[in-house]
Write a structure and sequence with these properties.
Elements: H1 7-145, E1 147-152, E2 157-162, E3 174-181, E4 189-196, H2 202-212, H3 215-231
Antiparallel strand pairs: 1-2, 2-3, 3-4
């Protein structure tokens, strides 16, 4: 005889399995939801940490760049200081030679000044000697030609004054001034000025005097020019 199936029992058992399955499923879903929530929170935390690390990295990169710039600037200052130090050392090494060169130049300039001073003294001596010669010549002409001279130390000129020229006025003054220009070792040049009254031909007489240095002949020529002026 075939056994009978306990349908109700099976149904109760299935309901029990179904209840356990529902509980397990709910628990599984809850666990998955919790895991998803935890995962989402973890991801957000990691994102926050990542952003923080990125910010820290950016700050560190900026600090490293600033440090590199400071190091480069410091290196540049050190190199500049080294160049200046080397330049100072080079100048110190060259200083003795420069001092010697300055001393040599000072000696040369002193020699030049000494030579110029000697030349000036020679010129002054030459002028004084020529003036003395002129004065001696003038003394010879004073009585015979009615000639006298007046010396002007300030302008270094010698003024010659004639009288006994004009028969109508024997005491009338005829005069001119002479100045010697020239350097030692060169032919003297005579400058004639302030001719009163001015006869013709004075320039030619002045050029002849500078060319020959014959002052006596020049004085005679000037007296003849004055005489000719009066007789004109």
């Amino acid at each position: 005889m075939a056994s009978q199936v306990d349908v109700q029992g099976l149904q109760r058992e299935l309901k029990g399995f179904q209840s356990d399955l529902d509980i397990w499923t709910q628990k599984l879903v809850a666990d998955c939801e919790q895991a998803r929530t935890n995962h989402t929170g973890r991801v957000r935390e990691l994102d926050g940490r990542s952003q923080h690390l990125a910010s820290v990295k950016a700050e560190l990169d900026e600090a490293a760049l600033a440090m590199e710039r400071r190091v480069q600037a410091e290196r540049a200052r050190e190199e500049e200081a080294q160049r200046r130090s080397e330049s100072v050392l080079a100048e110190e090494r060259a200083l003795p030679a420069l001092l010697e060169e300055q001393r040599r130049r000072a000696e040369e300039e002193a020699q030049v000044l000494s030579s110029q001073s000697e030349k000036l003294q020679a010129v002054e001596q030459q002028k004084r000697a020529r003036l003395a010669t002129l004065e001696q010549a003038l003394h010879l002409y004073r009585d015979r030609l009615g000639l006298c001279f007046e010396q002007d130390p300030a302008s270094e000129r010698l003024r010659l004054v004639f009288t006994q020229i004009d028969p109508q006025a024997p005491e009338k003054r005829f005069s001119f001034a002479v100045r010697i220009n020239g350097e030692a070792g060169r032919q003297a040049a005579y400058e004639v000025s302030d001719v009163t009254p001015a006869p013709p031909g004075v320039s030619a007489l002045e050029r002849h005097l500078s060319a020959t240095g014959d002052f006596a002949q020049f004085v005679v020529g000037m007296r003849r020019a004055f005489v000719k002026l009066c007789s004109a």
